[in-house]
Amino acid sequence: MNTQQSTRFPVYGTGIGLRRSLLDEFLEQDSIPVNFMEVAPENWIGLGGRFAKQFRYFTERYPFNLHGLSLSIGGPEPLDISFIRQVKKFMKEHDVRCYSEHLSYCSDDGHLYDLMPIPFTEEAVHYVADRIKQVQDIIEQQLVIENVSYYAAPGKEMNEIDFIKAILDEADCKLLLDVNNIYVNSVNHRYDAAKFLRSLPGERIAYVHIAGHYNEADDLIIDTHGADVIDPVWTLLDAAYQHFGVLPTLLERDFNIPPYKELMREIRQIRKHQQQYEKTADSEAYHATA
């Protein structure tokens, strides 16, 4: 393990989202060629029996992150404090490295079953930052917030990039950099993806998500996590490594999950991109000291 990486980031290397549909195939392997895994706490907290034993099998062998679905950090309803305490307990039980959530909301007097956009306003910045601080006080560590894909920007008073940076700064939280979401938004809202990426605060990045999507039309992409990663998204991942250094990167695949060998092909592709920039960094460090 790279010591510098292990102290800067909660995890290192390549990761995969552990889905229940993958359990049987994963258990058939001697080992999975990843450095960490990730689950949604809502799908595993309070689970007993066979699934609980299988989950423990993996948490004893791989570092884990949590990526939540229901915190609704920008929602109008009070935070579910009982659930957040359950998350804290679950993290302690399984030595989970960090808890991430979406910069969006998904409930209003009941779950909406979708990730809704938070208005890009100063008022929303203060509101969301205060709620993030509440979560951080309970879990006793920084929350990791993911930049999300969105398809409308109601009440917009500031740019997306300024909104994200303001929340990260005011809440003093970390960023889960979703490269695919940047690409999706850049097409849907017609902005320069690479420029947006470079504007993010690298010191806030905890780790990276990369995924596939669905082309609804030439000017409309839907984030689905149900397809292979496409070349422009790989290129944007390279841009992230080039600008910020090699970052821990997790492959998200939630639907149309391919057979194990095909899934691992994309994991190997992530590692190939990482190695390319690790070699570049090592070479630059050598020449700087030579």
Explain the overall architecture.
By secondary structure, the chain is an alpha/beta fold. The chain has a single domain, classed as Divalent-metal-dependent TIM barrel enzymes (TIM Barrel). Helices cover 44% and strands 18% of the residues. Strands 1-2-3-4-7-8-9-12 form an 8-stranded parallel beta barrel, surrounded by 4 helices. The longest helix is centred in the last third of the chain and has 30 residues. It is globular. It starts with a helix and ends with a helix. The N terminus and C terminus are likely disordered.
Apparent shape: globular
Summed up, the helix count is: 10
Number of strands: 12
What is the top-level CATH class? Answer: Alpha Beta
Task: Describe the structure concisely.
The protein is α/β, with parallel strands linked by helices and 290 residues long.
Give the secondary structure arrangement, pairings included.
Elements: H1 3-8, E1 14-17, H2 23-27, E2 36-39, H3 49-59, E3 64-67, H4 81-94, E4 98-102, E5 105-107, E6 111-116, H5 122-139, E7 144-146, H6 160-171, E8 174-178, H7 179-188, H8 193-199, E9 205-210, E10 213-217, E11 220-223, H9 231-244, E12 249-251, H10 260-289
Parallel strand pairs: 1-2, 1-12, 2-3, 3-4, 4-7, 7-8, 8-9, 9-12
Antiparallel strand pairs: 5-6, 10-11
Helix pairs in contact: 5-6, 8-9, 9-10
